[in-house]
Structure formats: C-alpha cells, structure tokens
Design goal:
Layout lengths: L19 H19 L26 H22 L4 H23 L5 H4 L3 H15 L8 H24 L2 E3 L2 E3 L7 H20 L3 H19 L9 H4 L1 H23 L8 H26 L8 H24 L10 H4 L2 H16 L5 H5 L3 H24 L7
Length: 410
C-alpha cells in the first residue's frame, strides 16, 4: 500500500505489499455487480437471479452484491487511513480527506441519479448527455500516473476540462416533473452516493476507535440501534431526514461498512486482533456465524428487506461477505493460489472506473435501440451467458485501462 509523509496527504512512490485477496474480492464483486445490473429485463430465468421486490420479505444472491461492496469499502479504510495516521498526519487532516472523498462520491452519485435528462427540454439527446457526463466524470477524477512535468500539466488540464464540462452539462439539464420542468435533484443518492455516506460514517468511527476491537464492535451495534430508533420515529422532523435516511443510509449501511473495517483492521493488527493465518480465518468465520445468528434474531422485527436496509438483511449480507472473503483469503494468501484472479484483480484496483464504464454502456446501447444485446439477449440461460461475457469484457477493459495508467481517484 502507498505510504504518506506526515506533511502530505498525497501517496508517495514507495509501495508495500497488497493483500491479494482484498483486490480479488473487490474485483469479483464488481464483476457480479455489472452482471446483475444488466439482467433485470431478462426473462425466463430463476427468480434468484433478480432482486426481491421492494416490499418482499427475503433476499437473493443479487441482494448481497451491494452490501458486499460496502463491506469491501470498509475493509480498505484501515489501510488507507491507517497509513497516514501511522506517519503522524493529524487526525483532523485525515478527516478533511474523508470529507473530500465523501463529497466526491456524493457528487458522482448526484449526476448518475439524474440520468438521463429530458431530450427536448435540455436541447440534447438524453442518452448523449449521459455519455458526455460519464466521460466528463472520468476526466475530472482521472488519476493517471504521470512522471514528467509536461504529463502533470496535461493531467491538470484534463481534470479541469472534465469539471468545466460537468458544469456545462448541469447548466443545460432539464427533466420533467409533476410540476413541469425541474433541474437536477437528490431524490436519492444512487449506489455511489450511498457508498459515500457509509464511507463517511465508518471512516469517522475508524479514526476515533482505530485498532480497538471492542470500540469498533460497540459502534457497529450502536448503528443498528440507530436503525431501530429511526423505525420507531425517533428522528422524525430531524434536519435532512428525508434526504439522509438516518436509519438506513447512516445506520444500517454504515454498520455493514464498519463490519468490513473490523476485518480490515484485523488484517492490519491491533488490540484484540489475531495475527496468525489460521487464527485470522477462524476469527472471520466466527464473525460471519455471529452475524448470521444475529440476523435470525432480528428477522422477526423488520424482516429481510434490501430497500429499507433492515438489520436482518445487513447481517445476512455481512455473514456471507465474511465467509466468501475467508475462502479467498485461504486460497490466495494462505495457500498462494493467485493466478486465477489475474482476470478480476486489476478491476479490483480500479473499481470506480469499471462501474462507470458498465453504466455508461447502457446509454451507449440506448442510442442504438436495435442493438443485438437488447433484441436477442433477452431470455433464458443463453442471455445470462451473453451478459456474463459483457460483464467480463467491461471488467477486463477497466483492468487494461488501469495497466495503461487510466485510473480514477476520488
């Protein structure tokens, strides 16, 4: 992992070894996320290939993908923030970085949830507007590795062009509403925005309670209590309650991310955390079992529901995330079986680019309504195979771009 000098919050050139299973887990999750996002319209496939209905009590493997990514975001937090704190960077400066990254995630999510605009009112085809917005986001948050003064100047210019383009696209944006036309709004924050809020909650707690397992576990329990309090109306009338969702976005999603922080901190070491491989595996598996047991006990209270982020849904997702990661850790970091992950691991190192590319693909296809994917890959297992190949292609593309110095950093 990159190290940071005490007077600088930018990564240095020295690199410490990465834990291979973390990037593989992130890459696999991105691959599955791209796949499941492309198949909602596919017919004649088993119900467990699709999200449960918003008012249903239950979950499929598809409903585990988003919380698994929250879990992985949490796993990375102790590494990313810990290396700065270990170098003596003041916690307030680290907190400033967390706020900037949160704002960046919310900014990206804000643009994505407003796609596409109304073509007539905007004066530009809505799908073209969306594609241009994605390209502008990639330019604005481009973190290409440059080593020369000329390269750094070009990098700054590209980022500036991206932000200017986003401002222009926002200026011309118009969409229909019950009252007529509206500008961009935050009816919800989108997947990227939800990740941003959860990242903020988990990062603040990690800064305050880093390396203290008891404090992290206690904070995670408190976040579930926030959900229960919100469900009983405790936060009714609080500022921004309709925009933030204290119980779901800050409470439940934050708790999932903090569970990932626990595992990430365990891998780094700290008070009460094991250091030997088999002790770590036992710890992760037991943590998953405890989360599963807690989910069973929470289920009668609020059911299993992804839309409301019920505690049972969160805890079942944490359990599966723990067990899947334990398997990857055993395979890759204990047994050293790593070559198989070469396909997905680069995307795990460049996840935002993979996600933006996959979502942009939808609007590219929308410009060509007669495209073979939308007209032929629509039913049965054959369609699933096609969309799986598309997901793999996007994952490979993001990995290839990453190897050629195209990376995104918020």
């Amino acid at each position: 992992m990159a190290t940071v000098a005490s007077n600088d919050l930018s990564p240095s050139k020295s690199q410490a070894p990465r834990i291979a299973s973390i990037d593989a887990f992130r890459g696999l999750t991105i691959l599955v996320m791209i796949f499941v996002n492309n198949i909602p319209g596919v017919k004649n496939i088993p119900a467990w290939f699709k999200h449960m209905a918003p008012d249903a009590n239950g979950m499929t493997f598809v409903d585990v993908v988003f919380p698994a990514f929250l879990f992985i975001v949490g796993m990375a937090i102790p590494f990313a923030l810990g290396r700065w704190l270990d170098k003596g960077v003041h916690p307030l400066r680290v907190m400033g970085h967390v706020l900037i990254r949160t704002a960046s995630l919310l900014f990206v999510g804000f643009f994505m949830v407003n796609m596409p605009p109304d073509s007539v009112a905007t004066g530009l085809n809505g799908n073209v507007w969306a594609i241009l917005a994605f390209l502008a986001l990639m330019a604005a948050f481009n973190n290409a590795a440059v080593t020369t003064a000329r390269g750094r100047r070009i990098h700054i210019v590209v980022r500036a062009i991206g932000f200017v383009a986003l401002a222009l696209l926002a200026y011309i944006y118009r969409a229909k509403s019950p009252d007529g036309l509206r500008w961009m709004d935050t009816s919800w924050w989108g997947i990227i925005g939800l990740i941003g809020w959860a990242y903020l909650v988990a990062s603040v707690i990690n800064i305050l309670a880093r390396r203290q397992m008891a404090a992290l576990v206690g904070a995670m329990a408190m976040l579930y209590l926030v959900y229960l309090a919100d469900a009983r109306g405790l936060f009714t009338g609080f500022p921004l309650q309709d925009r933030l969702g204290y119980g779901s976005q800050l409470g439940s999603h934050g708790a999932i991310t903090l569970a990932g922080v626990l595992v990430g901190q365990m891998l780094l070491g700290g008070t009460g955390f094991p250091t030997a491989h088999w002790a770590r595996l036992r710890w992760i598996v037991i943590m998953g079992a405890m989360a599963f047991a807690a989910a069973v006990m929470f289920e009668p209270l609020h059911g299993i529901n992804k839309t409301t982020a019920s505690p049972a849904w969160c805890l079942y997702s944490v359990a599966w995330s723990c067990w899947i990661y334990a398997g990857l850790y055993l395979l890759m970091d204990v047994w050293g079986v790593r070559r198989w992950a070469a396909i997905v691991q680069p995307a795990g190192e460049n996840p935002l680019l993979a996600y933006l590319l996959s979502t942009m693909l939808y609007y590219v296809l929308a410009l060509w309504p007669s495209n073979p994917l939308w007209n032929h890959a629509t039913s049965g297992y054959g369609a699933l195979a096609v969309w799986a190949a598309v997901a793999l292609a996007v994952t490979l593309l993001s990995g290839w771009l990453g190897r050629h110095r195209m990376a995104l950093r918020l």
